[in-house]
Amino acid sequence: MLVLLPPSETKHPGGDGAPLDLPGLSSPELNPVRERLVAAVEALAADVPASRAALGLGRTQDDEIARNAAVRSAPTLPALDRYTGVLYDALDVRSFTRGQRRRADARLAVGSALFGLLRGGDRVPAYRLSAGSQLPGLPTLRALWKPVLTPVLAGAGELVVDLRSGGYADLAPVPGAVTVQVLSERPDGTRSVVSHFNKAHKGRIARLLALTTAEPDSVVRLRALLRRAGLHVEHHAPEELTLVVPADAVVR
């Protein structure tokens, strides 16, 4: 089972690993595009106004541009430790035992605008690049990533659970992947799409899938696994599950 997570805009600073080693990352077939994008963000960082425009940053976020300037020399962290925010708080990999962390590193992967795909243990620096960014002189990120990343994901040879947000899923759609929609249900039975706290619920799903010893190989077995864990999961579309949470539990 491969569980795809979105990255986060915010990232833990610093690190204790050697600088970025592209040949040492998983999925080496992605390295030509990785090298092209790393070179582009590094060069762009020399022009602060252009970086602000391309990356959608305000004047108070120039530290993000400095991160890109140091993308090749800065210390690294494993991907699952680098990203922060609501989803990663719910995932809470720092609470895992060593054995659980090995399983998480094998099962969880992050869809990255800069690196394409990162396995949990791949070491990367802090950086700033979003799925919707447009780097000067380059095609769109979707045009760069889709031809090389989609075959990698399609050839995973295992059940793919795609928890990426829309922009990152668009970079490289995965045929046959299982997606999860999160809906809140009010006492009167009406439902609505969960927006911000969708990330927290997906983080909890990712944690469950990282820790389980089961190996679901179909959407039906995945649904059964989530239901055994006490989640209200419905299956109405062939490759989509719907997680229904009480409205008063959405922000917990």
From TrEMBL:
Source organism superkingdom: Bacteria
Protein name, per record: Peroxide stress protein YaaA
Listed GO CC annotations: cytosol
Region (Disordered): 1-26
A Pfam family the protein falls into: H2O2_YaaD
GO biological process: response to hydroperoxide
Gene this chain is encoded by: yaaA
